[in-house]
């Protein structure tokens, strides 16, 4: 009999695996609605929806292995990272979804709030926070909206050999900045940035990707700490900020 594996669990939602079935438990039905609809719209492989009974969504496992995981070296080939870049390009060229992501003003307000928290609680040296706040501010400008995944960590992209077999976790899909997805994908694996961009193609500002590295890392620290994760683990968000 298959065992129940806890993939991720915190106060907002949980994902369990039983054999080849993933069970996502989320009381926020808006997120589940977005995830299910987004997977019907995108031109990239996704998980198959098996059934849905709120607050649970059942998905079939995707073939292959994750492109990478935060805090661990990626064993995927450079060709696989380039294929991921090409898949992201296909997504960004898809017709816009009806959901709009956070506006620039919201990101700006959250950046100030999170930096104040980091400094007030002496979480990171002031020089690290200020340096990254300055770099992150470059991302806070008007952008041409595209269809973004919204949470495109390397662990959400699955590959088999050099091919992308599926992209999972679409609950934050929306209209947004293309550089946000590219920044998320390479956040913990900057050594593969050139490969991702080779697959993605022209029209990318590398400095804006680096700005999103800083922005995402500054915004995520408190949430991760409050939900049982360690942003200070090797290769995680605080390492990204120190390396900026």
Automatic annotation (TrEMBL):
InterPro entries: AGP_Transferase, Aminoglycoside_PTrfase, Kinase-like_dom_sf. Residues 44-203 form the Aminoglycoside phosphotransferase domain. SUPFAM superfamilies: Protein kinase-like (PK-like). It holds the Pfam family APH. This is Phosphotransferase. It comes from Paractinoplanes aksuensis.
């Amino acid at each position: 009999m298959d065992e129940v594996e806890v993939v991720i669990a915190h106060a907002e939602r949980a994902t369990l695996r039983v054999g080849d079935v993933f069970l996502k438990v989320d009381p926020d039905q808006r997120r589940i609605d977005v995830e299910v609809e987004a997977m019907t719209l995108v031109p990239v492989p996704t998980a198959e929806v098996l059934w849905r009974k709120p607050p649970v969504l059942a998905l079939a496992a995707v073939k292959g292995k994750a492109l990478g995981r935060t805090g661990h070296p990626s064993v995927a080939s450079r060709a696989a990272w380039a294929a991921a870049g090409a898949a992201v390009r296909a997504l960004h060229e898809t017709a816009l979804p009806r959901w709009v992501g956070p506006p620039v003003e919201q990101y700006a307000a959250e950046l100030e709030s999170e930096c104040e928290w980091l400094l007030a609680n002496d979480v990171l040296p002031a020089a690290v926070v200020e340096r990254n706040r300055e770099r992150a501010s470059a991302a806070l400008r008007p952008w041409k909206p595209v269809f973004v995944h919204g949470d495109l960590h390397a662990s959400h992209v699955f590959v088999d050999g050099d091919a992308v077999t599926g992209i999972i976790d679409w609950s934050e899909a929306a209209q947004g900045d293309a550089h946000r997805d590219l920044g998320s994908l390479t956040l913990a694996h900057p050594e593969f940035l050139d490969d991702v961009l080779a697959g993605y193609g022209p029209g990318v500002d590398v400095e804006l990707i680096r700005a999103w590295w800083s922005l995402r890392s500054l915004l995520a620290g408190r949430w991760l700490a409050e939900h049982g994760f360690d942003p200070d683990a090797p290769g995680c968000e605080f390492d990204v900020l120190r390396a900026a």
